[in-house]
Design a protein that fits this description.
This protein is of the alpha+beta class. Helix content is about 45%, strand content about 15%. It has a 4-stranded mixed sheet with strand order 1-2-3-4. The structure holds magnesium ion.
């Protein structure tokens, strides 16, 4: 560790984190062990066994009832792990739904500030670095 910068240390931490550890940090491991998402007021869904379901649906579905937001996230290790074509297909499709919803709201309600119309539905690919550098918390934090 001697001689490592903060960034190098964080990168090394990220590369050592498994997808299961990343998931546990975000949605916890059960009712008594909530993750970041639940602590910020989100309901979290994860399909425990997806082997008999259509391929590629994102690992996490998060809903914030108060804020009226819906987030989909595919989780991957930091390195040597890329989304499958089926996963990319779902993320792209879900992201496009978000864009359309935002566009619709833009045209319907001219009175709300822009920030409140953005990101009601969004889809992400999250790796450990996004957890460690605060990116995920920034996305999930509801003001
Ligand atoms: Mg995954």
């Amino acid at each position: 560790v001697i001689g490592m910068s903060v960034e190098e240390y964080r990168q090394a931490q990220a590369e050592a984190m498994t997808e299961a550890q990343l998931q546990a940090a975000i949605i916890g491991t059960g009712p008594r062990a909530p993750g970041l998402a639940q602590r910020l007021g989100w309901l979290a869904y994860h399909t425990h066994r997806s082997d008999r379901s259509p391929a590629g649906f994102p690992d996490l579905t998060l809903v914030h009832p108060g804020a009226g937001r819906l987030v989909f996230a595919e989780l991957k290790r930091q390195k040597r792990s890329n989304p499958t074509p089926a996963q990319v297909g779902w993320l792209d499709a879900l992201e496009r739904v978000g864009d359309r919803i935002n566009d619709d709201l833009y045209h319907e309600s001219a009175y709300e500030p822009l920030a409140e119309r953005l990101g009601r539905v969004s889809a992400y690919l999250w790796r450990p670095l996004a957890l460690l550098d605060g990116t995920i918390e920034g996305i999930l934090r509801v003001s």
